[in-house]
Structures are given as structure tokens and as C-alpha cells.
Amino acid sequence: MISTTVLDDGVHEVVVSEPPVNALTVAGWFGLAEQVRAAGAAPSARAVVLRAEGRGFNAGVDIKEIQRSGPDALIGANRGCFEAFAAVYECPVPVIVAAHGYCLGGGVGLAGNADLVVAAAGTAFGLPEVDRGALGAATHLSRMVPQHKARAMMLLAETATAEELLGFGSVYAVVPAEELVATARDVAARIAAKHPRVVRAAKESLNGIDLWDVRRSYRYEQGFTFELNLAGVADEVRAGFGSGS
After folding, report:
1. For the structural domain made of 2-176+195-238, what CATH number should be given?
2. Gene3D superfamilies annotated for this entry (predicted)?
């Protein structure tokens, strides 16, 4: 389930709850994109908080759905992720991601495209794609860690902690898990208290001076996922994979 609540002062909160690990189906990714876009489009919106319930923030795509449904699910997952990541990046008001537990695969795509990230202590960020027979979201990981760190994390499928990312400046704050929601809401409220037209202009201008086109860059990455699937390599790797990630 993905739901949106309007908090005080124009803060819209989008919450993902898809047990057991918040690995989203094709419909889930498109649904998330729709709700983030709707939140940002609301005339009253001044900031958006994106968070999740359960064991972790996001475990990426539902691999089991792809195993069951084949190419159509793969195409849908790629397009759904593309839309959800773009919805966060293109949201006309700032998006604050509140991550806890783990932020993997598509979770990195969401966090990497957000304006600010707050995280619970010990949250693990990573791209397990190489171990899943796929690629993608290196575009977004590269916005969160230095280049050689990103390469090591991707090639070795290793994770980095919220504390490490705090040192890189890509995580704004690391707090105890029980304080995460309140912290994210407080950050959003502080933004919402500023002049809305100025904040919207700041968001648009920051996107306008970005060093690379995140949409085009991510779409380029997705082409290699299709290539691996057409070659049969992805099926070979996924055959030994037992849970959604």
C-alpha cells in the first residue's frame, strides 16, 4: 500500500508499506510515481516527505514478479522505476527521503534523486544489481558517494552505512530510528516555512544546473539490463536468487 497524508504547513507525506521488504511490483512503482507527482502538484504543497513502514525503506523491484511474468514484467519494472525516480527529481517542491533499515536498488534511485536524505542510524545503502543479473541506479548512487566508492559498491555489491554517507554530505542527518519520522517532518516544515515561490524557484534552478541529465543517464543504464536479459545471463543469475530485492 502507498498512501499520502497532508500534514500541517503544506507538507505532504508519501508512505510506502509493502511487506515483507518493500520490494515494489510494477504497479507499485507506477503507483509511487503517481502519488509523488500528485503531492508535488497540489497547490498547497510546500515540501514532500517520502518514507516507508516496516523492516526497511526500499528493497528495489520485486524480482519474483519478473521471474513469474518474464519480459513484460521486466519492461514494466524498468519503466515504473524510471517514472518513480523522475517523479522525485521533477517534483516542483523539495522531496525529503527518510530511510531506515536498508535502501537498496530502486531505493537508491529514490534517495539519490531526492533533495535531502535523513536516515536512521545504521541504514545500509547499496546496489545489489550485479548479484541479481541486472544494472541500474548507478546514476543515483554516483550522486551520493564519490566515483570510486560507487564503482566499488556496484562491482562488489557492497553496502555503505548512513554514517558513511553523512561523511560524504549526501545524507543530511543520521538519527536514532525512533526519531526518524519526526526529524524528516521537521526538516520539511523548516523548508515549508520559507516563501513557497522562492523555494520552488530554488528547486527548479538546482535541477537546471545539474551536472548531468539523470533521466538520460539512467535510461542508458537500463539498456544494459535488457541486454543481459536477452543474452540469458540475467535468468542464469536470478535462478539462484530466493527473495525480492
Report:
1. 3.90.226.10
2. 2-enoyl-CoA Hydratase, Chain A, domain 1 (3.90.226.10)
